[in-house]
Amino acid sequence: MNKKVGLVLCFSIFSGDLLAQSSLTLEQRFALLEQRLQSAEKRADKAEAEIIKLKEGAGEIKENIVAVVKRESPPLVKSNPNAELKFYGDVEFNLDGASRTGSLTSLKTSANKNWAPGNKERWDINGRILLGLEGMQRSTAGRYAGFNVQPLADMNGKMNLDDAVFFFGQQNDWQMKVGRFEAYDMFPLNQDTFVEYSGNTANNLYSDGYGYIYMMKEARGRSNSGGNLLVSKTLGNWYFELNNLVEDGSSLYVDSRYHGTELENQKNVVYTRPVVAWQSGIYSVAAAMESNLVKNAYGYNDGNGKWNDQSRRTGYGLTMTWNTLKNDLENGMVVNLNTAMMNAKEEKDFSAGVNALWHRVELGYIYAHNKISEFNISGVNESCDNECSILAPGNYDIHTLHTSWQLPDIMAMPNFNIYLGAYTSWLNSSSEEQGNHQPRYGARLRFKYLF
Predict the structure, then answer these.
(1) What is the pTM of this model?
(2) Separation of alpha carbons 102 and 259, rounded Å
């Protein structure tokens, strides 16, 4: 309340009474008026203080009401307070060019799954965007459980999937995983951008009529026709892993064809893949095998109606790594030495490779030997259209050189890199029908963005 207004009101109220008291002197009247004005001023101050107090009380009541509403109204997205949730992404697009002589091997050198080897030059833009969601909840004594899902959107307008896995275990001790994922890499290629497999690692690895670079991937997982169950254990410097893959075994072969014969699937295969690894400081070594445990899972009937089981496959692998990069990011080096061998029906395969990464430049070499004892030429000629590299029994040697160079921190962003990759391959054959083949080669520009 305005003090001047109060004084005026008080003066108007009491002026008549003061004038009525004619017996008082002028000085007495002014003294009495002054006393009443002071009393009115005190009452105005008290009233103003009460109004301020009421306003403050109303504000506190409003805040309390809002707090109660917030407590009683759950959020739209609620997360377990003991859980961790992470969203991430991986953008990868390629500009490719390859020689017109097509492919020598079944090795996939394109992320475009619709592309097939041919006798024409290939100029291609391909790639995908991966969106990942990972959740984990921790319990007492280092126990945990979680999941990971990675949908893919490729340039062809299709949706695919990398990982879809549920896992649980105890930190630095044991773990169990089930779903779609990749097990231990027994043939690492370092920073390579071109010779790596694209998409499913357990399917379409063998393309009839082309050389096979065996890399211990048949039972590694991420299949589009089955799932994995993996159990692992860590003991000091030792790591033990047992991966089990159940799938349609004929999905290993493109168009379900093997040595010129169409395969018939009768039941799912069960691959088992034990791995033993040891690591100390900058050195690590791992040994593994993979084998199908189910007989007569797939095969074919010959001209006499006799069933031929083609599902007996057992592979072995060894990889060794020397890694100083994790301790010296500027001058460190990573060197991998890999070897693998496959014993299959009517075929034996051996692969060996070495690769090194230094100052973001990678260089590698892969040697593969295929020994084929039986081959139905009439069954593959039509599908190959005279473009196949292997059309007869014999020994085949495949040589591949690959390289990659990383250009980091594009536009001063550490999560945006460009890779320049290239490869060349050539084949030597003991078969008179096939002879030696001219080199195949290609180059790639890759844009890589992580978020």
Answers:
(1) 0.79
(2) 20
